[in-house]
Structure formats: C-alpha cells, structure tokens
Amino acid sequence: MNTYKKRILDSVITRRLKTSGAILLEGIKWCGKTTTCEQLSHSVIYMDEPEKRDHNMLMARIRPSEILDGEAPRLIDEWQIAPVLWDAIRYRVDHGDGRGLFLLTGSAVPVDEDEIKHSGTGRFAWVRMRTMSLFESGESSGEVSLGALFEGKDCTGAHPAISQLPDVATAVCRGGWPAACELKGEEAFDPAFDYLDAVVKKDISRVDGVARNEDRARRIMRSYARLQGTQSSASVINADLAANEAGSFDDDTVYSYLNALKGIFAVEDMPAWCPNLRCKTPVRTSDTRYFSDPSIATSALRIGPKGLMEDLNTFGFLFETMAMRDLRVYADAHLGDVRRYHDASGLECDAVVSLRDGRYGLVEVKLGGAPLIERGAEALRKLASRLDTTTMAKPSFLMVLTAVGDCAYTRPDDGVVVCPIGCLRD
Questions:
Q1: 358 has a pLDDT exceeding 50
Q2: What is the pLDDT of residue 113?
Q3: Residues whose CB is less than 8 angstroms from the CB of residue 67 and which lie 6 or more positions away in sequence, other chains included
Q4: Residue 268 binned pLDDT confidence (cut-offs 50, 70, 90)
Q5: Alpha carbon separation from 55 to 8, 66, 120, 382 (Å, rounded)
Q6: Domain spanning 9-129: which superfamily?
Q7: pLDDT of 61 over the 70 cut
Q8: Which of 37, 111, 328, 353 is most buried (CB neighbours < 10 A)?
Q9: For the chain, what are the domain ranges?
Q10: What are phi and psi of 153, to 5 degrees?
Q11: Would you give the distance in Å from CA 376 to the centre of its chain?
C-alpha cells in the first residue's frame, strides 16, 4: 500500500519539470528527498546502493549512458558521489527533449567540483527541500494561507490544530523528520538524536574528506544551538565555547566546522533583507544563524519538551528556528524567499517573506501572550514606517506569528495579523 504523504514541494518540482531539463533537489538527510522524487519519477537509479556503488561510479565516468538511460523523468539519487555526471546530464538535456528529463537528489555539496566543467545555467533548476512543516505533519489546520495573506484576505476566526504550549514544545524537539512524525511518545525524539550522532561521527568529515573531531563537532553544534537567531561571528561562537564548554578553538577551525555543516545542509543561515529606507540607518548584512530543523538544536543541547517549558527564553529562540523552517517551506510554494531585517539602531524584523513580483510581508515571531504580541506589533509598525514606499511597494501584510493562541485575528487598530503557527500553511 502506498502511504506516501504529499509534500508542499511536490507542486514546485512538478512546475519546474515543465520549465527545466533537470531538477537538482538538495537538502538535509532524511527530509524525504528520495521518497518525494520516487513518486514523481518514471525510472530511478540509486548511485549509493552498496552493492552497485563502485560499478555506478565507474559507469558514470566511462559509460554515463548506462546511468542516464531510462524513462523520463529519471531519478538519479545521491548523484553527488559522481559529480562527473553533471556535464553528461547537461549534454543530454541540450541534445534531448530539453524539459523534465532528470531529477537529481543530494544531501551534500559535491566535494570534487573540478569534475564539473559547466555551470548548468539554463539546464538545471535548484530546489531546496526541508524537513516537514507543521502543516505537512498534520499539526497545523492550514486555515490561514500565506498566499491568501498576500492577497489581502482576512484570517480572523481561523483555529489552530495545536494550541497548547507543551504540544508546540514537543513539535520543536521532535522536528519535522518524516520518520519521527510517524512515532509517538519518547520514541519520536530518537531520529533527531540519531541524526546528530551521524553528523558528528561521520557526515561532518565525509562531506569534504577532512577528518574532524567528534567531540569538537558536538561542542560547536551546542554553541550554535545556543546562538540560534543571532548574527554571531566565529569569535562570538568562540566566546560562547569558552564560557560554556571545555575551551575554545581558533576562528578558522570554527569556520571549517560550520562550512562542513552547511555542506550537508544541517544549518541554513538566513540572509539579510536590505530595503530602501526613508532614513539613513545602516542595515546589518550578516547572516542569522539557524539549524535546518529545530530538533538538531534541542538534541545538541540535550533538552526535551519539559526542559523547554522550564526555560522559556531558550524555548523562544528554538521556536523561532521552527517558525523559520515553516515559513521557508510555505514561501517555496510561491517561489518566494525569507530574509531577516536588523539595523544599527537595534530594530529587527524576524522574517521578511518576499515574492518574485516584489510583494513582501513582515513577520515577527513570538511565543504568545499580550505583552509579547504588542512588542512584535510595535516593531512591525516601526519598520513599516521607515520604508521608503515611493521607491518600493508597501508590505502586503504585517504578522505576529505565535506559538499558541485560541484563533487567528486581525488587530482593528493597526491591521497587524496575529496568527498561531498551528493555523498557517502555504
């Protein structure tokens, strides 16, 4: 029996197959890339299949047609172990039907990029897959659509699927791993710990062939977890290590480990949003630190739902990590992106969701409660007042995204949308 649960990204991949010769689906391990592409492809080869790996890598070099021949779209799973395939696929796209020929999946950036002679411009489309959002795992009612907010529709009265803070804490610690979302109780937290072990023991070294120390990797990932939602440099991470761990490292070592984590998509830092402003306040352009899934942070910190409930400050930062994952998943459905605003005066906006046509929405993320909601709304109004709307559009919406709440509503005094995350979808 086919138990595959449709993902939001399915529609994006289907669309891109109509406009591109090959789709490169990248993302963190165990997020569902292979399963998703198996549903959308008509033939498949698993490059990393243990009994055939050596044969597949040899054929990729001396007879790539053996790898590429098959009914389109053809899935080439874990293609990055044989980067020489890139140019063979590009050539096949150029001399074939031209659209919807290949689906490539990869959970790491190719190590030997010297094997790639052509950028792939005009032939490949890059698509990022993430762990499951709350809507995909069935924990959001989906009554508030991000697309509808961009259309100016009212969301008042929408009810969340989860509305209790302990349930949100459980979702943060479990993460959006497809395997975890099928489990109950304490067992649901195991996949996140298993992922952390796989990273520090093997994957952080395998990504580029550089041997890295397991203990160092764990300590750096713990520090990274403590610094979620900040623009921390390597020196700041080192200071955190010195304060909380057994010693620190030089900045180059920290960057080496962080780049390896990026190479396996374990971290997904958020770039800065730089709008046109009425004033001349300098905008900070450093990326904001986030793990790709909040459960990586909770596993690194060895904290569970009960611990989060006892430390609401940490809970707030890690809830923000989950909110960024969900916003990115929902924005992808509209071919949009998510960035963060932070200026020299200290004014911040947690997320700016931008679409291709220039529309954008401003989002503040809060656990909930009237004081925090009011603080978020004030920050949104202040940023909106600084934007130079003679040279750029007005924001399509201002939203405070909360962990809990009885329902979504639009504030009558300033038009700010207050939406529990358990209501939101693409």
A1: yes
A2: 55
A3: 45, 47, 56, 59, 60, 76, 82, 85, 88
A4: very high
A5: 35, 11, 25, 60
A6: P-loop containing nucleotide triphosphate hydrolases (3.40.50.300)
A7: yes
A8: 353
A9: 9-129, 144-425
A10: -80, 145
A11: 23
